[in-house]
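STRUCTURE REQUEST FORM
Protein name: p27 family phage terminase small subunit
Source organism: Stutzerimonas stutzeri
Requested output: structure tokens
Priority: standard
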Amino acid sequence: MAGNSNSGRPGKPAHLHLLQGNPSKKNADQLLAEVREPAVPVDAPPKPDWLSAEAAAEWDRVVTDLLTLGWISKLDMMALATYCEAVADWQRFRRLIAEHNAKAECSGDIQTFATGAKQISVWRQLANDAEKRANAAGALFGFSPMARRNMKAAAPQGELFPNEQRDAAAKYFS
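Status: completed
Returned output:
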């Protein structure tokens, strides 16, 4: 077998085909239909009621930007909730580490045993784990420069083919 669905370059989005003059000679009507109506409609998923207060605040912070970029749909509730809870966990553990570091007799980063052995504290381990979870889930939504590089933003760009006559007529007949 010569290849499978993972072989070769990933496909370009329809609006990019149209902007580049459709060099691959795909069906223009199908490309226009894909641009007008995406496969998954852009919409905010309902905020789960079981989110912690910090996670709900993070949800509110990122959802509007994701809607603007067109990178979210109602299907993304679990992935977004995972990201928000991981960020909330990370914030909570970072606060606990800061509290332990403020005490002179103990450290929030290093745990010392009675034998004198030292290791990374459990709070630091939990914070590191929450950071990894937040980064992994956030990459699904383009929350890092490397993840954004692979995202296909449906950024507002105006019409692909402006029509001045139609716009002028719309002013008088709407």
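Reviewer notes: Helices lie at 14-19, 28-36, 53-69, 77-102, 122-139, 145-149, 164-173. The chain has a mean pLDDT of 80.
Form closed.
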